[in-house]
Amino acid sequence: MHVRTILNRLHRIPGFVFGNERWAEYEDAPALLVPVRPRVGNKPVCSGCGEVAPGYDTLKERYFRFVPFWGIVVFLVYAMRRVNCPRCGVKVERVPWAEGKRLTTTTFDHFVAHWCKFLSWTEAASEFRVSWRTVFRCVEAAVEWGRRHMSLEGVTAIGIDEIARAKGHKYVTLVYQIAGSSKRLLWVGQDRTEETLRGFFSWFTPARSKLIQFVCSDMWKPYLKVIKENASQAVQILDRFHIMSHFSKAIDEVRAQEARALAYGGETALKKTRWILLKRPENLTDSQAVRLRDLLKLNLRSVRAYLLKEQFQLLWEYTSPTWAQKFLRRWTFQAMRSKLEPIKRVARMIRNHEDLILNWFRASGEISNGVVEGFNGKGRVVTKRAYGFRTFRCLEIALYHALGDLPVPKFTHRFW
Ligand SMILES: [Zn+2]
């Protein structure tokens, strides 16, 4: 059976026909070349304007990477025609199997992008015998296709978050859809300034921004201001994830200070306790739980800070804003008398933003508590992996690819 027969069955290209394959050598291994030619009477389409145009000449053959067959590298081989377009002048034709000047077929782009959900880009490069750069281009093409075809209807709740992109205070701002038909990453912007977030709203369009009902974010001032400007109707919510991350910083500070002081006196009670104090008790391993129990017996500042944080967690059990408010006030009163400066700072912040926190309870059940946290976790993993990429573009593509829940074209046959 010919490869042509298989392609005719699974991957017809309207207006073009496949010829018989022939063998070739590609990087010291056999490869299959499948010639493609226009069907008789097929007129070339101008790549400038997308209209049929009179032919001009034919260029020499180009090799378009196709999905490997039984591990054998496959190319479609085609001699591009040029058109003499009355609107655009002399232009290369547009072909249906590849975008723009790409030398990989759209099917191959999506094939590689699909596998990059499970493999690192380096692994995919070696698996499919292409360069890392080619893998990136494939994922980029798949992401661009998905972004062009994604629907932005029905986005009523968004979460705004920031992730450190590299050492030295470089940040990216991420905007998620956190409720409704899809929970996904909507947008990535460089930095975390007012300008960054304005970029999101102008991409999202003013009309859609007016339909947003809830915005979860940190109290980062530039964010609050820009949200007010662009989606003033939305209820702003200070969500659990962002509040609790302030606690983590505070506890870290108390613990580090105290551990230094203790170590000076030869005491090691706080050694390797960082994660024990930061994790929720239910997430501790058995030996960590034992460690925590012993730790709690000691009259340490770190322990007091830990207990105040755990006590604060009870807030999330409330459903009524009134009772949540009572709880908040009782807790802040206590925390302000704790003599733990970092914790008092959190308490002050909570007091100053009480309304934003209580909005969480007013939104009652519209948004699930872990959603921003979940995205932040996954986003960090992608970002960590992307430290090696250096450029913002690579990180952006990797994030959209992993978290964007992007649509893929419906092929007559999927090769994966
Ligand atoms: Zn044209």
What spatial form do the alpha-carbon principal axes imply?
elongated
Distance between the termini: 21 Å
Low-pLDDT residue intervals, each spanning 5 or more residues: none
Order of helices and strands: HEEEEEEHHHEEEHHEHEHHHHHHHHH
Q: For the report, how would you describe the main beta sheet? A: 6 strands, mixed
Instruction: Specify Rg, calculated over alpha carbons.
Output: 28 Å
What class do helices, strands and sheet pairing give? alpha/beta
Average pLDDT number: 91
Q: Compute the number of structural domains.
A: 3
Share of helical residues? 40-55%
Number of strand segments:
11
Measured by DSSP, the beta-strand proportion falls in: 15-25%
Number of helices: 16
Bound molecules: zinc ion
Task: Tell me about this structure.
The structure is a single chain. The protein is built from 16 helices and eleven strands. The protein is of the alpha/beta class and 416 residues long. It has three domains: 1-97, no CATH class; 157-239 and 367-403, Ribonuclease H-like superfamily/Ribonuclease H (Nucleotidyltransferase, domain 5, 2-Layer Sandwich); 240-362. Strands 1, 2, 3, 4, 5 and 6 form a six-stranded mixed beta sheet that branches. It has a five-stranded mixed beta sheet with strand order 9-8-7-10-11, with helices on both faces. Helix 3 (121-128) packs across helix 4 (132-149), helix 4 (132-149) crosses helix 16 and helix 5 (194-204) packs parallel to helix 7 (221-230). The chain is elongated and about 85 Å long. The structure holds zinc ion (ZN).
